[in-house]
Specification:
10 helices; metal-binding; Alpha-Beta Plaits; 2 domains; alpha+beta; hydrolase activity; Bact_exopeptidase_dim_dom; hydrolase; 18 strands
Length: 423
């Protein structure tokens, strides 16, 4: 049934009444960020709250993932996902509640941690919406399935949850929606059908050399030099091996090698990220990376038993929204927020997600992923006047969610769920 004016009024009143508690929750999650597959505290907070509200909750799915189910009579089954992990970024947002957390990562390295992508808002929105559904059962019918997903940033959590038995504990949904922050003005919603985001791969390349003293480099096979040459030559993969009309991004996000000024180490590690829309482009990038790295190693005399090692980590296919579901939600939200607040079409962009992999083997699930504006409108306008596209970007130290976006996003989550479940 369409989202009714009475339902909208009930949502607005409920979320406004919850606002202080929801902002407090958001600030708490922001101050205690956790990296992928380490979201123990965040998942526990969500699980406790959902159980208090009457949901049947299963934890530990795919590591730290959780799923909550609330049945309310006959009707459709709608799934909603919120990712929970933070970034290995030092926050410089200037917020009084900015993260100062540092952790030891699974590989032993130490890193700052902050919610510089808004997943703390995602969890807050989901729990606010969960409370509304639990307390207003007369307004909807069917089954609500809420998923707290780990490790989106490393593009591994969705697959881990499916492989970890997600569909053993939840019903297969008819529709599936997810939200993400975007640094557009608060009150803006992107609901676009079709191809929205690129496919991605996380690839580690380990170059094995032969270390020694910095004064005698001729007696070594220097993996640092090999890594440096590989980084430069990788740029030719996109620049000279891929059709200029295609979309391809190859980023080296981290270089790890050695510890001392005068010691040539035995190995170097490069952490790569690929973005693509065409699987053939993906394969060409991967082949180019292997050919370049192996060629450099052979040039420096590396023997076949110590050739570079390649580890494929998280990855995802391009994200494609169901056009009919996107239009249905865009129309419903336009009726509430006004057409000027709805972005219905954008060119596909090279951000990536694994949310749609939560469908697992159930390809016929209708799926749409929406973006929710979280930037102060005045800050956004000032940035645009200065020639910027956004005031700050996701994953940057300056990223932050304006507190006005907490009730705004929670209301949109409720509007969307009642559009699909409402009576």
């Amino acid at each position: 049934m369409p989202l009714t004016p009475a339902a909208v009024a009930a949502i607005d009143a409920a979320i406004d009444a919850q606002n202080d508690a929801n902002v407090e929750l958001f600030v708490d999650l922001h101050r205690h960020p956790e990296l992928g597959f380490m979201e123990e505290r965040t998942a526990a907070i969500a699980a406790v709250r959902l159980r208090e509200l009457g949901y049947t909750v299963t934890t530990g799915i795919g590591g730290t993932g959780l799923a909550a189910v609330l049945e309310n009579g006959a009707g459709p089954t709608v799934m909603y996902r919120a990712d929970m992990d933070a970034n290995a970024v030092a926050e410089a947002s200037g917020r009084p509640y900015a993260s100062t957390v540092r952790v030891t990562r699974l590989d032993g390295t130490e890193s700052p941690v902050a919610h510089q992508c808004g997943h703390d808002a995602h969890v807050t929105w989901m729990l606010a919406m969960a409370q509304f559904l639990a307390e207003n059962r007369s307004l909807w019918a069917g089954t609500a399935v809420l998923v707290g997903q780990p490790a989106e940033e490393v593009i591994a959590g969705a697959k881990a949850m499916v492989d970890g038995g997600l569909y053993d504990v939840i019903p297969v949904p008819d529709q599936f929606i997810g939200f993400h922050t975007v640094p557009l003005p608060v009150g803006t919603v992107m609901a676009c059908g079709g191809v929205l985001m690129a496919g991605t791969d996380q690839l580690d390349v380990r170059l094995l050399g032969h270390g020694g003293h910095g004064s005698t480099p001729h007696l070594t096979q220097d993996p640092v030099v090999m890594a440096g040459q590989a980084i430069v030559q990788y740029q030719s993969v996109v620049g000279r091996m891929i059709d200029p009309a295609a979309t391809a991004v190859l980023t080296v996000g981290a270089v790890q090698a050695g510890a001392d000024n005068n010691v040539i180490p035995d190995e170097a590690l490069l952490k790569l990220n690929l973005r693509w829309f065409d699987p053939a482009v993906r394969e060409r990038m991967l082949r180019g990376i292997h050919d370049i790295t192996d060629g450099i190693a052979r040039t420096y005399g590396v023997t076949e038993d110590r050739m570079p090692e390649y580890t494929m980590k998280g990855g995802s296919t391009p994200l494609v929204n169901d056009p009919d579901l996107a239009t249905r939600l865009a129309d419903a939200l336009a009726d509430v927020l006004g057409e000027d607040s709805i972005v219905r079409s954008v060119p596909p962009f090279t951000g990536s997600e694994d949310v749609h992999l939560l469908k697992g083997p159930h390809d016929d699930i209708e799926f749409t992923y929406m973006m929710i504006g979280v930037a102060d409108p005045e800050v956004f306008a000032t940035a645009v006047a200065a020639g910027k596209q956004f005031p700050y970007g996701p994953h940057s130290p300056e990223f932050y969610v304006d507190l006005a976006a907490i009730p705004a996003g929670a209301k949109v989550a409720c509007y969307a769920m009642l559009e699909l479940l409402g009576v």
